[in-house]
Amino acid sequence: MIQRICRYLTVSLCLAALTAGCAKKDLVKQETPIPATTAPQAAPAPAPQKSEVPSAQPVKEEAVKAAPATPPATVADLKESLETIYFAFDSSLLSDQARNTLVKNVDYLKANPMAKIQIAGNCDERGSDEYNLALGERRAQSAKKYLETMGITGDRLSTISYGKEKPVDPGHDEAAWAKNRRDDFVVIK
């Protein structure tokens, strides 16, 4: 009887170890190539000005309503129209300014219902590779969830984290770090 229990425990432990070993998840997603568009170009709509450095002051909701976004005419114009959002240090929470920017992006996406986008989460250079990959993924997921609540279907959105691998400013000060804590929006289809 004791021998039978020992065999059962041994087999159970082996199965548990094998199962736990198979549950690993890759932290880095493979980059999806962006196909070239062959759609005829219409007159480009004026793209909103993108700020090099994120403003520390939140944008008032009235300001967003006062300047409605002009929907781009083609997917090529959409690539130029989607704006980057920025995050605070060590955070994936959307600021008021980031939410207002996402509202503008939603207008562009609703005007182009066939377009699919990839949300790329990025971090500054501080922190380990693993930590920044996880933080970049949380940032991208945060933007994706907000876009879904605004009516953009999840099948049009994908996320990827680059961590600290794709800085827009290679500097080593707060101004550079603020530019690198961001989500980029890339049209993939």
The CATH C-level class name: Alpha Beta
When the domains are counted, the total is: 1
Q: What is the total tally of β strands?
A: 4
Structure classification = alpha+beta
**Proportion of residues in extended strands:** 5-15%
- How many DSSP H or I helices? 6
Question: What distance lies between the first and last C-alpha atoms, to the nearest angstrom?
Answer: 64 Å
CATH 2nd-level architecture = 2-Layer Sandwich
Provide the gyration radius in Å: 22 Å
CATH topology: 60s Ribosomal Protein L30, Chain: A
Annotated CATH homologous superfamily: OmpA-like domain
Instruction: State the share of residues found in helices, binned by percent.
Output: 40-55%
Order of helices and strands: HHHEHEHEHE
The residue-averaged pLDDT reads 77
Oligomer: single chain
Order of strands, widest sheet: 1-4-2-3
Signal peptide: 1-16
Family: Belongs to the Pal lipoprotein family.
Organism: Geotalea uraniireducens
Protein name: Peptidoglycan-associated lipoprotein
Would you give an account of this structure?
- It is a single chain.
- With 189 residues, the protein is of the alpha+beta class.
- It has a single domain (42-187), classed as 60s Ribosomal Protein L30, Chain: A (2-Layer Sandwich), CATH 3.30.1330.60.
- 41% of the residues lie in helices and 11% in strands.
- It has helices at 2-21, 61-66, 75-81, 96-111, 129-149, 174-180; strands spanning 85-86, 117-122, 157-163, 182-187.
- The chain has a four-stranded mixed sheet with strand order 1-4-2-3.
- Helix 5 (129-149) links the parallel strand 2 (117-122) and strand 3 (157-163).
- Keywords: Cell cycle, Cell division, Cell outer membrane, Lipoprotein, Membrane, Palmitate, Signal.
- Belongs to the Pal lipoprotein family.
- InterPro entries: Bact_OuterMem_StrucFunc, OMP_bac, OmpA-like, OmpA-like_sf, Pal, Pal_lipo_C.
- It is found in: Cell outer membrane.
- It is a lipid-anchor.
